[in-house]
């Protein structure tokens, strides 16, 4: 049986950095600093992500297409919300002629984009010119209803939140003052699809940005040479991460993965599919999990 080794929980990486925006000290501003650096260094000329549409009775997530460096600050909050990026790829491909497209998203988004690069969009194969993939380290997403239920259970005020990050094995939902929750409390309200995810660290990206906070710094795992260019004399503060920073993130990811694996194995045994996995996929994972000879598990995508 393969174990929850670092190769599986975090994936292969060449460098790990702590980064901090010079003007603000939030995980959101730190991620934006990386994106701006990618524009300034010519690694990308456009980017896709998501934002939260609040100008309506029922707030909703929508995909956004950033066509220049100046547009980045037009969207608040930016890129920390799941879903929607893939839905605008066909329109972007047909309407625009950008050559260096960047994508910022969680593993569920990046996995879909990787498949589109191989299989095309719809019946017409379209060349997707992705130049940089920035993955978001993720421990699962809550719906707006789930978030409200969590706040209600803890007898906390209902409010719009700015961002979610984790630190020292706890999840923080931040507005003006961050609210802290245990992994167990947070996990109970996760979307069902997130409870079968095996790629919390966005393997397959050029770099993974982790919404982990320590004294205003966030953690980045650099996986490719292209990703490493972002950290050469950048406009944000950067220093090498210490082993304790990496271990702290790894242990948090392990907690969620253990729960996800239990959920997957139970579904495989009962033959109950989910909105992301069918019976064949459950069976394949169950067989691999129980195969004592399986070693190179990072190549398997779940």
TrEMBL record:
Pfam families: FrhB_FdhB_C. It comes from the Bacteria. Signal peptide: none annotated. GO terms for molecular function: oxidoreductase activity, acting on CH or CH2 groups, with an iron-sulfur protein as acceptor. Residues 99-233 form the Coenzyme F420 hydrogenase/dehydrogenase beta subunit C-terminal domain. This is Coenzyme F420-reducing hydrogenase, beta subunit. It comes from Desulfurobacterium atlanticum.
